[in-house]
Write a structure and sequence with these properties.
Elements: H1 2-11, H2 14-52, H3 55-111, H4 117-146, H5 166-194, E1 198-200, E2 212-219, H6 244-259, E3 264-267, H7 277-288, H8 291-294, E4 297-299, H9 303-306, H10 324-340, H11 356-360, H12 364-373, H13 376-381, E5 392-394, E6 402-406, H14 426-437, E7 443-447, H15 473-480, E8 487-491, E9 498-502, E10 505-509, E11 523-532, E12 538-540, E13 544-548
Parallel strand pairs: 2-3, 3-4, 6-7, 7-8, 8-10
Antiparallel strand pairs: 1-9, 2-11, 5-6, 9-10, 11-12, 11-13
Helix pairs in contact: 2-5, 3-4, 3-5, 4-5
Length: 557
């Protein structure tokens, strides 16, 4: 862990990190601590004027405030939700996850031989609760320690000598953040402890006679580079050079498709290594050589497509107002439109919902102008375009058919330490559940980039345990639980193959066919068969493992 942190600190721009943390954390904390003092001083000043109003005047003031609140609640809710989960990602999640995984790591190293699958699940639940209590206690201790220096009621005289407010403002901010951490860690820990714990899938299903089946090739984390022998960020030059491995994956898929047709080729994110234009060009060069596969392909955004600022220096960060993040979003959205723009629909609640190409039509000229010339103003003008396209829905062809839901699970982040974290918003989840509910007899494949929770896989190094799952994973699993028997969730991000369950929700994690191997080593991916029987549930059949052989390396004379 120290080695990882040290390498990041060497590569990162410390002045820019200081500025970004000041804007994202210090400034909001100061505002948070200052607000009670300024608000109480202001109320004390204006309360006399409000009380002096007639009853009609006071009613009009309240009515105006109510109207403004009604008009502005949705954008304010979006801002509040984004900042709420950002605070969790920066404050609660790291402390809680570090403590939870340390407890799990210690338990597994000490009692590994004695754990049954059920015992491992109980240990995971217990460690979540203990971690929540531990972080809660530490945060409460800090709040008690700082409390004597805090002050919550301001006066009009305070506004004339603002330097007197520096110490109480900082103490207020520490107390408020610590109190939030106290409550949030406790809630988070017991939420993880009480949720359905993950288990390896006990057995695959057998398709009932006469059931309709769908064959899905599941690819993920291709990490396409823009130069022939370019290294990849996570594997350096230890992994396959260039994109030749992807070419062989596509050729093998086409041969399989000719003999046993595929219904869907799903790529669950990280198509590119850093979202560069040259990488997207290389990706499309590989895809368009196989038009039959391209016609069946659906892709979704990964953190490398959106959140990596510089592939030559992965620790570099964007400032919060940088247009570079918006440019990577528009590149990804344009790629998705090119592949699935005429079939995917973007509003699960609409009747009928527009296709992705129809939804993007009003913005095409603005996107083109931004891609050509950049600029803060053009970037700000496209602020909600990316988020508003999710989930993308491929609706079932019949009321009891098979639908696909494509999600964006990337957290809004500009920091190298958090650019791999996942998050699914409440609005996106509401649209998803609405779309599924409109077809109560249909079966669904739900695809996203990030893993929902950390899975029960033994590891040897503690650094491997600090994952980057969904920040709100336990909440999202609970939202999926009512649809469990007729959905399968597929994702990438971890570069591992794991198939398991969280209660009734079945989860499929895809390995990367290009990462974690040397040029001469083989890689693999899976083709999954899903079946829908006459009684409604979606059946997950045993997958077909497809090996991609390495290239034979000749030794030098």
């Amino acid at each position: 862990m120290l080695a990882i942190a040290g390498s990041l600190l060497v590569e990162i721009s410390l002045p820019k990190l200081l500025f970004a943390w000041t804007v994202s954390l210090v400034l909001p904390a100061v505002l948070l601590g200052l607000t009670p003092l300024v608000a109480t001083a202001w109320l004390a000043t204006v309360s006399g004027h409000i009380l002096a109003l007639t009853e009609v005047g006071a009613a009009l003031v309240l009515a105006v405030l109510a109207v403004l609140g009604w008009i502005g609640w949705r954008p304010l809710f979006r801002v509040a939700e984004t900042n709420f989960w950002s605070l969790n990602a920066l404050a609660v999640q790291p402390a809680y996850v570090f403590c939870r995984e340390a407890l799990r790591h210690l338990a597994e190293r000490t009692f590994a031989r004695h754990f049954t699958p059920a015992g491992r699940a109980r240990m995971r639940a217990t460690s979540s609760a203990v971690a929540g209590i531990t972080v809660c206690g530490c945060a409460a201790f800090i709040a008690i320690l700082v409390w004597p220096g805090s002050r919550w009621i301001g006066t009009a005289s305070d506004l004339t000598v603002p330097h007197h407010l520096i110490v109480p403002t900082l103490c207020n901010a520490i107390v408020l953040v610590s109190c939030y951490l106290t409550l949030a860690a406790l809630v988070w820990g017991f939420a993880d402890a009480s949720m359905d714990q993950p288990f390896d899938l006990a057995a695959f299903d057998t398709a009932p006679a006469g059931s309709r089946t769908w064959r899905v090739a599941h690819l993920s984390d291709l990490h396409v580079v823009g130069e022939r022998y370019g290294f990849r960020i996570e594997s350096g030059r230890g992994g396959p050079c260039g994109n030749e491995r992807l070419d062989r994956v596509m050729a093998r898929l086409e041969a399989i498709h000719i003999s046993q047709p595929l219904d869907l080729v799903l790529v669950t994110g990280d198509m590119t290594d850093a979202g560069r234009a040259t990488e997207w060009a290389e990706f499309f060069d590989a895809v368009t050589r196989h038009p039959a596969l391209a016609a069946r392909m659906m892709v979704l955004p990964g953190n490398h497509d959106l959140n990596i600022v510089d592939r030559a220096n992965p620790a570099r960060l964007d400032l919060p107002f940088s247009p570079a993040k918006r440019l990577r979003q528009m590149r990804t959205l344009s790629a998705m439109a090119a592949l699935q723009g005429d079939c995917a629909r973007v509003d699960g609640a609409g009747k009928p919902a527009p296709t992705l190409n129809e939804a993007l039509a009003p913005y095409r000229l603005r996107i083109a102008a931004f891609a050509e010339s950049g600029g803060l103003r053009r970037a700000a003008g496209l602020g909600r375009v990316f988020d508003d396209q999710f989930p993308m829905i491929l609706p079932p062809d019949t009321e009891d058919g098979f639908g696909v839901a494509i999600l964006n699970s990337n957290a809004e982040t500009h920091f190298s330490f958090t650019n791999a974290l996942g998050f699914v918003s409440a609005e996106e989840t509401r649209r998803l559940t609405t779309a599924i509910s409109r077809f109560p007899k249909a079966c669904w494949l739900i695809a996203l980039h990030h893993h929902l929770i950390e899975y029960p896989m033994p590891v040897t190094a503690f650094s491997e345990r600090i994952g980057t799952a969904l920040v709100n994973g336990s909440w999202f699993v609970r939202k999926l639980r009512p649809f469990g028997p007729r959905i399968v969730v597929m994702h990438g991000h971890r570069h591992i193959d794991w198939i398991g369950t969280c209660g009734s929700v079945r989860i499929v994690s895809a390995p990367s066919p290009v990462m974690k191997s040397t040029d001469d080593a083989s890689t693999h991916f899976y083709i999954h068969t899903l079946a829908a029987g006459p009684d409604g549930p979606l059946y997950l059949l045993a997958p077909e493992r497809i090996e991609i052989a390495g290239i034979e390396l000749r030794s030098a004379d």
